[in-house]
Amino acid sequence: DIEKAARYIVASKAFDCSTICATEQAVVADAPIARRLEDQMKQEGAYFVDDAQANLLRKLLFNADGTMNTATVGKPADTLAAMAGFGIPNGTRILVARLTRTGKDEPLSREKLTTVLGWYEENGWEAGCERCIELIQFGGRGHSLIIHAKDQNVIMAFGLEKPVFRIAVNTMGTMGAIGVTTGVMPSLTLGAGGVGGSITGDNISVSHLFNVKRLAYETSAPPLAAMIPGEPRVGPSPDEVEAVVRSVVEELLNRK
Questions:
Q1: Residue 213 lies in a domain
Q2: pLDDT (tens digit, 9 = 90+) per residue, 173-196?
Q3: Catalytic residue check, 21
Q4: How many domains does the chain have?
Q5: DSSP H or E stretch at residue 55
Q6: Which among 104, 170, 174, 225 is most buried, taking Cβ atoms within 10 Å?
Q7: 181 part of a folded domain
């Protein structure tokens, strides 16, 4: 449903000026329907910037070292355009920049906690799937993804292959991932799991803050093997343990 998808994408990105972490950061549109989706999004208040305006946004939103310019966080589209130095039509709700690259060389492929949305076009859902994985690996491991589709096989493929813990289907990213329009736990704190450097992939709730004391009675006898004396096992040396720990920590740091 292209009309519904366009309405939801624009409304979600514009909601609270895109400060909710689950808001859409980029649209990956299937090429055969891309023009129709673009036209529908324009009717909902999306303004597609030209190349020169996109360059102005790159310079405005991000510092030279790639960090976010905090002065642009949570700003309406007209405010951002004025800060960047160009005009937009009245009633514009979000700014959309056409992109072809993902990674450090394309600042607008990063997380943007403001009313700027990336736009990619890919031919076929398989290519779209790969682009989504690129975006997630660059700046969203473990977090969230939204898919608008009717083919259950495609939806399931996206759900299985993406390294995220929330896949919202045919709904708004902001409202779906935080549990307003879906069955996930309502929360504004979203865990990114082990792949994202978090201890959980859940939507954080009060249940994660409980400390439960348990009095545990024996329910079965210990296995016989546990009662028979055996040869002492020789484990790794402290130096070997230290080397493994350092290797794991180094790998995790390099992922970031």
A1: no
A2: 999 888 999 988 888 888 888 788
A3: yes
A4: 2
A5: helix 51-61
A6: 174
A7: yes
